[in-house]
Amino acid sequence: MKAKPKATRERTSKERAKAFTGVQALLVFPSEEDRKATLDLMRRFSAAVRYAYNRLLEGQTREELKRADGFLCTSFRLNTRYADDAILKAQAVLDSARERGENPRKVVFGGRKLFQQLKRRHLSGKPLK
Fold it and tell me: Highest taxon of the source (predicted)?
């Protein structure tokens, strides 16, 4: 009996974990106007993800949130494709928190610095006395 070729055998979970490749990029913009427009879109998309996450916690459905005349599209000035992507990203964060057995209401949207400040319970940046 021959062994299976390496390409066709099933991988173990340890091998799959090593297969992850991250990508990091530096965006170069031809003009300052393009840079500002991109940063504004990123800011609105992140806010839409946070809003969608909170509405999913309240029990709203994806269809209610995705409507073109709904709050997500009109308030954040996003088209339905971006709004749907924001909902999917929020749903992934929600599912991940539930899968790990964590409280989904205690998710922090932001960077590590904000998380550390919330963990220490003082957002002013001043040390506790």
Answer: Bacteria
List pLDDT tens digits, range 12-68: 555 555 566 778 888 899 999 999 999 999 999 999 999 999 999 999 999 999 998
Tell me the residue length of the chain. Answer: 129
- Whole-angstrom Cα distance, residue 24 to residue 35? 18
Structure tokens at 35: 């840079």
Burial class (CB in 10 A: 0-12, 13-18, 19+), 32: exposed
CA 46 vs. chain centroid, Å, equals 8
pLDDT for res 122: 65
| Whole-number CA gyration radius for the chain | 20
